[in-house]
Amino acid sequence: MKKINIAIAGATGFVGLELLNILQNHPNVKIVKLYAQSNLGKPISFFDKRFKKNKFFPKVSLLKDEDFNIIDAIFTALPHGEAHLISKKIKKNTVLIDLSADFRIINKGVFEHWYKVPHLAWAEQKKAIYGLSEINRALIKKTNIISCPGCYPTSILLPLIPLVQNKLIKTNNIIADSKSGYSGAGKKTEDKKLYPNIEQNIAIYGVGYHRHMPEIDQILSEKAKKKISITFTPHLIPTFRGILSTIYLELEKNIKLDKVMKCLIKFYNKEKFVKIADPKNMINTNNVINTNFCNISIYKNRFKNKIIIASSIDNLIKGAAGQAVQNFNIRYGFKEDLALN
To answer: Are the C-beta atoms of residues 114 and 105 closer than 8 Å to each other?
Structure first.
């Protein structure tokens, strides 16, 4: 089979490097372009020693100089607004897999309010599919613009979507408290002035107004067929990678924890990358680090009709690069776990 020519824009960031690390093991892929804004002309091993032995990767080049003619699919891990411009330049049949928020929000005003940049590709937005792999698989197969979910939304939406679809939980007071390794804030965490003692510090941020909130609200509302707004608070913790989300829920009348468990097990029974854990075992991030898995566990609460759900993922893989490659495999009809084992 002819290999698919791949470009990675934002190749030297945490997510871009994870994409490259996964795709270098994909048998149907040829990496033809690696784009960045600085350190141009350097080998990718300059940024990550994992690639020191691979001498076949292209050197880092400047995105704006590219005409995209040799590219079949492009992964974009760039600041918000950049993928809008790329979507207008690529060939009609080129697949764009975006890891920013540029195509996640379906309301133009909501996007511009939360991300403080104009939406410059509204016609393209209407063609985009939200790339939560296990949920929108059938639609992902048919689109050329795949908008990969944020890391926090992935960890929150996967356990909640089956429950809101089956009307098992009350939706007026969903509370999600998430802890992420500091890689979730990007390479700016290397700035010691902005993030002092990052490896020994726990920091709350985005309190009440984190940009992932409208994304979570939008998808839950769509799946529940009614308006849902959740309370969500993120924290950075002194570890490089991994997310653990703790979600506090109230059950609908006459719904028991056992029914919630059965619902999630049935919903994800055939999914390789989503696992429902035994509630006797407290889940953690260690079991999902460097994998594309999402582990979910359901716990009793001491208060009647209330439960706690925990969800763990690797924010750089299932929350970003791994899910992007999973979507790539879905789109091209490959085995879904190709290069992800």
So the answer is: yes
Q: Which residues pair with 176 in a beta bridge?
A: 232, 247
Report the C-alpha gap between 292 and 284 in whole angstroms: 14
* pLDDT mean over 82-88: 95
Measured at the alpha carbon of residue 87, what is the angle toward residues 86 and 93, in degrees to the nearest 5?
120
Nearest to 160 by CA among 64, 6, 294, 57: 294
Positions annotated as catalytic residues are: 151
Q: Say what the pLDDT of residue 212 is.
A: 96
Cα Rg of the chain, angstroms? 20
**Least confident residue range of 31-45, 48-62, 269-283:** 48-62
74 sits in the region (left: phi over 0; alpha: psi -120 to 50; else beta) called beta
- Rounded average pLDDT over 264-270: 97
Residue predicted with more confidence, 268 or 46: 268
Cα–Cα distance for residue pair 59/40, rounded to 1 Å? 8
For residue 76, the cross-strand partners are: 9, 98
Tens of pLDDT, residue by residue over 160-194, are 999 999 999 999 999 999 999 988 776 666 666 66
Residue with tokens 């889940």: 283
Q: How far apart are CA 41 and CA 108, in angstroms?
A: 37
Which DSSP category does 170 fall into?
-
pLDDT tens by residue, 115-171: 999 999 999 999 999 999 999 999 999 999 999 999 999 999 999 999 999 999 999
For residue 314, what is the DSSP state?
Answer: -
Q: How far is Cα 94 from Cα 97, in angstroms, rounded to an integer?
A: 10
CA distance 29 to 15: 18
In the chain, the domains with their CATH numbers are: 4-127 (3.40.50.720), 152-315 (3.30.360.10)
- Residue 25 has a CB neighbour count (10 Å cut-off) of 12
DSSP 124: H
Calpha distance 193→207 (Å, rounded):
20
